[in-house]
Amino acid sequence: MSLNLTAALLAALVATFVSTASLRAQNNENPNYTAYPEPSLIQRDLSEFNWILRWNYDKFISYRTPNGGAIHLVATDDVSDEQVLRAYNILDFYLTDVPNTRFGTEKAAIANAMSENGAMLVLPGGADGDSPVWSWALEGQPLYELEFPVEGSTPYITNDYMQRDAGFEEIFHLVHDYGIGTRDTKGVLSDSFQTEFAAATQAALEDGIWGYGDNARDWIEELRVEGSLQQEYAASIIDSYYGYWAAWTHEPGGMWNVYVAKTRADVEKRDPIGIALIRDFLPEFITYMARIDPSFRGTFEMQFNKDIPYTHKSQYLLNARLLGSRASNIGGNDENNIFIGNRADNVIDGRGGTDVVQFDLLSIDVSISRKQDGVRVVGADTGKDLLLNIEVLRFKDRDILTSDIR
């Protein structure tokens, strides 16, 4: 081989290496790529907190508000990092604007008010009444380890009401008490959403929609004295609206039979005033990226199936991410979903809607091919994924339409 040819080949190799390296350095240049919350957000240096919190808790994550403030979520080590991230996601869900609604477009103001009012979510180990955390260390709003299962975990999949998912309820209380406003405190929506909900609560009590039954009377009176009737009524609607009581078979109603409705269809039929107010504040579907517990195996289903009771809840998810190293799968619903696989081999079926599978990679890091039954994506960090009914492959550098894959 001549020296000139050798030099030319070396120059070409160098150019290829440089261009590849440059492409790899172009991180997050795809404007559609979204970086979702990761465990790296969780911190363990609690020196900024008072001694009571430092003594009782081990870690925290801060939700940054538009005014430069923060809402802190403080947890013990009994609470998993995945539970902390889910609490963060639910808080973000409540504080994300919902266009074209009467009360859901002022979420930045609510978040700012929460930070100014010192809103804090504490996540202690154990359960309410049986926790190693001192009762006087329960600052702000508590949400207990055994009352907050992660999507895809055994209590979530089996609908274990001994570990009932109180996440949406308790975090709504936090948002309501510190941001929206209560009977006794001024908030962003005190004169609008809160006022209308107070009237709806009274009507629900009088009509036997909520707070009915002899067992609830003393509890309702306690709530009335402390000024939290509206918060509890709203939480009852929210839990049934997103399917969290539909699988409970012990009583005809939801929220331990304090509320007349179990499912969204029940709420629409039995409580039209309540559901209208919730729709004026919250979206129809849960918009955060659900992190499926690493212990999950099989196919996580997001389409309602009466034979799979947990789908009463998961049918309202828009997005899901597999964690861990199990070769698990996802079955989407008929909405526009975003999915993320794990490092193992996954089958992801988007079903209806316009669906996206996002990869924490550049497009040059995988091989993509058209198969008879779908699209195959293979890479060292993603395994061998088979994608069915997926319209978009999303990488850090670009989107690829599956219709363009030959």
Summarize the structure.
The protein has 406 residues and is α/β, with parallel strands linked by helices. The chain contains twelve helices and 16 strands.
Protein model, in words:
α3 crosses α6 and α7 (193-207) packs across α9. 32% of the residues lie in helices and 17% in strands. It has 406 residues and is an alpha/beta fold. The chain has 2 domains: 39-279, no CATH class; 286-404, no CATH class.
- Would you tell me the structural class of the helices and strands? alpha/beta
Count of helix runs = 12
Number of separate domains: 2
Radius of gyration: 24 Å
CA-CA gap between termini: 38 Å
Proportion of strand residues: 15-25%
- Shape by Cα distribution: globular
Q: What is the share of helical residues? A: 25-40%
Q: Strand tally, please? A: 16
List the helices and strands in order.
HHEEHHEEHHHHHHHEEHEEEEEEEEEE
Low-confidence stretches: 1-26
Mean pLDDT over the full residue set = 92
Strand order of the largest sheet: 5-7-9-11-15-16
> What about the largest sheet?
6 strands, mixed
Task: Provide keyphrases for this structure.
single chain, 406 residues, alpha/beta, 16 strands
Summarize the topology:
Elements: H1 3-25, H2 51-56, E1 59-64, E2 70-75, H3 81-94, H4 107-116, E3 120-123, E4 141-142, H5 154-157, H6 167-180, H7 193-207, H8 214-226, H9 229-241, H10 264-270, H11 272-279, E5 286-292, E6 299-301, H12 311-314, E7 317-322, E8 329-331, E9 338-340, E10 347-349, E11 356-358, E12 367-371, E13 374-379, E14 383-388, E15 392-394, E16 399-401
Parallel strand pairs: 2-3, 3-4, 5-7, 6-8, 7-9, 8-10, 9-11, 10-14, 11-15
Antiparallel strand pairs: 1-2, 12-13, 13-14, 15-16
